[in-house]
Amino acid sequence: MTIKEELVNYRDGDVSCEGFFCYDASRTGPLPAVLISHDWSGRNEFAARKARRLAWHGYAAFALDMYGGGKQGKTTEENQALMGPFMADRATLAKRITAALTAVRGLPQVDAKRVAAMGFCFGGLCVLDLARSGADVRGVASFHGLLKPNGLETKPIKSKVLMMHGYDDPMAPPEEVLAIAKEFTAAGADWQMHAYGNTVHAFTNPAAANPSFGTVYKPEADRRSWHSLLGFLEEVLR
Amino acid sequence: MTIKEELVNYRDGDVSCEGFFCYDASRTGPLPAVLISHDWSGRNEFAARKARRLAWHGYAAFALDMYGGGKQGKTTEENQALMGPFMADRATLAKRITAALTAVRGLPQVDAKRVAAMGFCFGGLCVLDLARSGADVRGVASFHGLLKPNGLETKPIKSKVLMMHGYDDPMAPPEEVLAIAKEFTAAGADWQMHAYGNTVHAFTNPAAANPSFGTVYKPEADRRSWHSLLGFLEEVLR
């Protein structure tokens, strides 16, 4: 195994973005690829760690950059300021993540036909919006993603969808679960929802320890969702 | 690998039951065990096939007999007549499946401390009721199980619970999903629900092909739920 890591610049119009690319150079390519969409704090070490784990499993992993310039927030206020404009303009959000998809497809190590995407919290919403845009991507997997509808024109969803969800997540209550089930069924999606009881937001993040904010690490749900992810990637990319 | 199969008689009061027991005799025991609870048609070949697959994976698998004498229905009417009394008397149902748990614990090949249970359709309800009874079993897994509450006194649920569910199952509509999530959360259960979109009842059964009755085989959900089951058994029994 020869894990390589590099920063890759790509553009969305005027905005220069900086992805973190990681793959096993000892494997015969081109490799199936997985986009990793960061949480509201930006393309952070958490996303890079997931990329390394996926590289170990044989995927070309690309931690994308929604904010441009590899920007990261350090406080709740900074994170909110970075995420807010995208939540308010979901068309721009879809355009930004589509630029990452185009970028990863152009990398020489990547098999452009075998690409999936995954994301955490805000990043979960980003990959769900990628699916909602009708993107030709094999699968998208959301970890404690926000489920709110994008308010844009409905398109047929071509990618398989796996949502992994803390049932007590205050940022994605049961009525939004019911709504997205209805929306994705109507869009013809091959979708799954794995809901974990007694689990709130950010359950994959060991640093999450804020019950009053609704963000708490839950090792059982972290392990179970990773197991589900690997099965899903195996299904859609092999 | 030396897969052994045998019929095992056990009792629930006056009723003599006949389980199908299957395990790999070449493995060093005692083995972790999995009870398999049949659908409404009785302890059939479908349950036996699942037992053989689990034996291959290293579990002592016991396809239990809810109806006694290994009885099987051949028509919808016969199945309804066999299942009906248990649906009407959930305390008797719990007693009957508990007898199977006691029986499997007494088998010399079985590690009595490492037992889980799984079931299909009516059998899914049976294993959920086993968990609801407060049984000391490591985990229960339900495939397109009926979700209806048992109306009995609430007890703390000690076993981990995995429900695999067709989201369009007419026998377990969204309101029952919401209700069981609430019930199991209140009972302190470590529960998961894996819901599959565009999927109805009986999705694991290749013979199910009756859309108007709401029973249709779905190979994707069959494979995905089996993957989830194996991860779950690994988690609770190893």
How does this structure look, described?
Two copies of one chain form a homodimer. Chain A has 238 residues and is an alpha/beta fold. Helix content of chain A is 35%, strand content 27%. Chain A has six helices and ten strands, in the order E-E-E-H-E-H-H-E-H-E-E-H-E-E-E-H. In chain A, strands 1-2-4-3-5-6-7-8 form an eight-stranded mixed β-sheet, sandwiched between helices. The first copy, chain A, has a two-stranded antiparallel sheet with strand order 9-10. In chain A, helix 1 (45-56) links the parallel strand 3 (31-37) and strand 4 (60-63). Chain A is globular, with a radius of gyration of 16 Å. Chain A starts with a strand and ends with a helix. The mean pLDDT of chain A is 97. Chain A binds chain B through residues 161, 167-168, 174, 178, 181, 184-185, 188-198, 220, 223-224, 227-228, 231, 235, and chain B through 161, 167-168, 174, 178, 181, 184-185, 188-198, 220, 223-224, 227-228, 231, 235. Strand 8 of chain A pairs antiparallel with strand 8 (191-196) of chain B.
User: What is the strand arrangement across the widest sheet of chain A?
Assistant: 1-2-4-3-5-6-7-8
Q: Largest sheet of chain A at a glance?
A: 8 strands, mixed
Alpha carbon gap, first and last residue of chain A: 19 Å
Helix content of chain A: 25-40%
Regarding quaternary structure, how should these chains be classified? homodimer
Strand content of chain A: 25-35%
Mean pLDDT across the residues of chain A is 97
Low-confidence regions of chain A: none
Structural class category of chain A: alpha/beta
SSE run of chain A:
EEEHEHHEHEEHEEEH
Q: How many helical elements of chain A? A: 6
Q: How many extended strands of chain A?
A: 10
* Largest interface chains and counts: A-B, 26 and 26 residues
What Rg of chain A do the Cα atoms give? 16 Å
Shape of chain A: globular
